[in-house]
Fold this protein.
Amino acid sequence: MLLLAAAFLVAFVLLLYMVSPLISPKPLALPGAHVVVTGGSSGIGKSIAIECYKQGAFITLVARNEDKLLQAKKEIEKHSINDKQVVLCISVDVSQDYNQVENVIKQAQEKLGPVDMLVNCAGIAMAGKFEEVEVSAFERLMSVNYLGSVYPSRAVIATMKERCVGRIVFVSSQAGQLGLFGYTAYSPSKFALRGLAEALQMEVKPYNVYVTVAYPPDTDTPGFMEENKTKPLETKLISGTSSVCSPEQVAKQIVKDAMQGNFNSSIGSDGYMLSLLTCGMSPVTSITEGLQQVVTMGLFRTIALFYLGSFDSIVRRCMMQGKKSEVVDKTA
């Protein structure tokens, strides 16, 4: 009886692997494609632009700092695979004025053709205890990290639906899957991208347009270095439980998942576990992916409970150390 059950299970899994390609989206070909990358002057955004350029894409870089854009352009152009490729730079704040964002996207499309892939990578990070974070910081992070992705996506979506082709990528964070100490301003702005992506995917899937949400871990970028300057001790210790990734490693995975039309893009074993744990009602690209979520949920939830216990322990220890320091200061 056990052998029969095992044989049935194996046959069922094999059937899923055979059927999966039939329901998966057709991969997007990057040679000759027009890829727009916001926040493309540095960090993950620049690495994504390089990765796409290596595969023959035409690139539009969007960022605020014109000098950094020109530097990034020179670096990206070193990776061309033919003499027809172009890197276009546009200096604009994607979080401030939708009409302005719409106009620059139109300019880019007039020069390089309709947008085949939009990568929303513009964002900022900060960490601090809830009561110590300025109210204006909550507003700023929501503006840049959320509206800074809404505006460019809104500007390209009509053309993508008309052409029945396109990819939209939202670069969130593992802090957009799990709320952590010190990220009361940052996490909500990244969680919001998940809700936007799920709703948008349901709207545009019939038009062969696919949405990807990327959840990179701590990544060695200028933004990460700046964030570390004000990061609370508790946040540093919790973040230290996982390794820091290179922007090139993150970029390769994001580009691969976006081309395949995968809804979730995660990096490393921790990222894989988090994506399965937090899948909820998010779309799946294949039956196999759905089966993985069903089978692993219980095991990964058990592992996650140990992680959460460890994080709570770190916070308690830091609190006790803080109280001891206060006593020493008072008696000194």
